[in-house]
Design a protein that fits this description.
Elements: H1 34-52, E1 57-58, E2 61-62, E3 64-67, E4 72-75, E5 78-80, H2 85-106, H3 109-113, H4 116-133, H5 136-144, H6 149-178, H7 180-187, H8 195-215, H9 217-223, H10 225-233, E6 240-243, H11 245-248, H12 270-273, H13 294-305, E7 313-316, H14 318-321, H15 331-353, E8 358-373, E9 376-388, E10 395-401, E11 410-413, E12 419-421, E13 425-434, E14 443-452, E15 457-467
Antiparallel strand pairs: 1-2, 3-4, 4-5, 6-7, 8-9, 9-13, 10-12, 10-14, 11-13, 14-15
Helix pairs in contact: 1-4, 2-15, 4-6, 6-7, 6-8
The protein binds iron/sulfur cluster (2 copies).
Residues 241, 274-277, 279, 281, 289-295 line the site of one iron/sulfur cluster.
């Protein structure tokens, strides 16, 4: 009876699960080849983009920053202020359909070529692991070996370096949300001063460390929502990493001697040994395949040694492999690209159509003072008013109190009448002078409206709490 290769997979279960449902840890072997060279060139470029982009300033602003709390979106020097949820929805929906369009053409190409998890694991974490613990076989043996000083040292060194890299990635990731300069100054102070951000960064570091250092392909197989979506987006015309069964089968037996036919596959399992998700691509397109092309390089290497044409495993569509001409643009891909264009057009339409003037009243350090005018007591509240908008138009604003019962008892003072707003973001000083009788237990909520003299309409309103002494 033939010995079964450890790389021969059970057809009934996942490649990374044993008969008890426990995880089989993978030790993918390294590979050399044209596809790897191309991928690693892109990975290096992407690492630069992912890690350097948020530290890059254009027009005094970060190259990319998404401030969810302030609803501000900065992209290559331009900022959208007060972005409405509906605009976020249009942007998100167009992104999803664009990704679906790319998937329908090129399969799960994002996963193998650009996903940050793949990029960092392949070009940093696996490299460090191989440098410290050796090749795939040595790593497997180290895992199985009992604890020793050497094993402890290697593990401590590896996880120490992984932790430093994870800390750096998590901080950079935070830079996308709070801005790199702010983040840099925050890191110079005690964590207690920014506890929320500190906790978020530490949680991010832990997730990155465990995911990139240990969980790895399990995330792609079990948790990634895009992995689930790809089967819907793809069809028999999508370009995927495929095994040419017509050419390869019947394959040779495990002894390496070709017995019955002229199939090109020599059953060396090299395509399985290098696969980061542990699958055997000879079983056809599978959900676990991240299109990393490692198996193409591994098999091309064997074919070259056998003096046979490369491409037993190659980028191809199911139709092409079966001898049917591939249709590049299909109904499915047309629907996806149309929906992506509709949503992105809606985004820009609503962006330009809406004034989205946003008012933020920032109370000054001294909330109020009491003066006398015509021997009557007057309370004055001081604010800085931050006005932001994302349209291209200017405003000439008058500020009015909406509440009819107190309208005549409050006067609003700004340095200029009307206040001219000709930039996407502007701050002006604003005072509220009022009679103490409007206060109830020292406070009074009023609604302030901004009337635009250019468009002759109310373009924004905001509730403000006025304060004074409690009597
Ligand atoms: S690497 Fe090529 S020859 Fe070897 S098992 Fe895979 S498909 Fe067959
Ligand atoms: S089957 Fe090939 S392309 Fe797919 S994940 Fe494995 S090595 Fe990468």
């Amino acid at each position: 009876m033939k010995n079964k290769s450890i790389f021969e997979l059970d057809p009934e279960r996942l490649a990374t699960t044993d008969e008890h449902g426990h995880r089989i840890y993978l030790y993918p072997e390294d590979v050399k080849g044209t596809w790897k060279t191309r991928r690693f060139l892109l990975y290096r470029l992407l690492i630069l983009v992912y890690l350097v982009l948020p530290w890059f300033y254009i027009n005094g602003k970060p190259a990319l920053m998404i401030n969810i709390f302030k609803r501000e979106f900065t992209f290559f020097g331009s900022t959208l202020y007060g972005v409405e949820p509906v605009l976020f929805f249009f942007l998100l929906a167009s992104g999803i359909f664009f990704v679906a369009f790319i998937t329908s053409l090129f399969g799960r190409v994002w996963c193998g070529w650009a996903c940050p998890q793949t990029v960092f694991i392949q070009s940093l974490f696996l490299k460090i692991e191989a440098f410290i613990e050796g090749k795939a076989r040595q790593r497997r043996e180290l895992d199985l070996a009992p604890w020793s000083l050497q094993k402890f040292f290697k593990r401590a060194l590896k996880w120490g370096i992984f932790t430093l890299i994870s800390l750096h990635i998590a901080h950079t990731f935070m830079g996308y949300f709070v801005g790199p300069r702010e983040l840099f100054f925050i890191t110079l102070h005690s964590p207690a001063e920014n506890m929320g951000l500190f906790i978020a960064t530490m949680i991010g570091t832990t997730i990155i460390l465990l995911d990139f250092g240990w969980f790895r392909e399990q995330f792609c197989i079990i948790a990634c929502p895009y992995g689930r979506m790809q089967s819907v987006a793809m069809d028999e015309n999508s370009l995927v990493v495929s095994y040419d069964a017509k050419r390869g089968e019947p394959r040779r037996g495990e002894s390496g001697i070709q017995k019955t036919s002229e199939g090109d596959c020599i059953n060396c399992y090299n395509c399985v040994k290098v696969c980061p998700t542990g699958i055997d691509i000879r079983r056809g397109t599978q959900l676990e395949c991240i299109a990393c092309t490692q198996c193409i390089d591994a098999c091309d290497d064997i074919m070259t040694k056998l003096k046979k044409p490369k491409g037993l495993i190659r980028y191809s569509s199911e139709n092409e492999i079966n001898g049917i001409r591939r249709r590049v643009i299909t109904k499915r891909s047309l629907i996806y690209v149309t929906l992506a264009l509709v949503f992105i057009s809606s985004f820009f339409y609503f962006l330009n159509a809406s004034t989205n003037l946003n008012l933020v009243f920032l109370r000054d350090k001294v909330p109020f003072n009491v003066t006398e005018f015509d021997s009557k007591k007057i309370i004055v509240n001081h604010f800085t008013l931050k006005l932001t908008h994302q349209g291209s138009q200017d405003f000439k604003l008058d500020f009015l109190i909406k509440d009819l019962d107190v309208k005549d008892k409050i006067s609003i003072v700004t340095p200029a009448h009307p206040a001219k707003i000709d930039t996407p973001e502007k701050k002006i000083v604003i005072f509220f002078k009022f009679d103490p009788s409007i206060l109830n237990l020292g406070t009074r909520k009023v609604v302030v409206e901004a009337f635009d003299r250019i468009s002759q309409q109310i373009v924004a309103s905001k509730e403000v709490v006025l304060v004074g002494p409690v009597h």
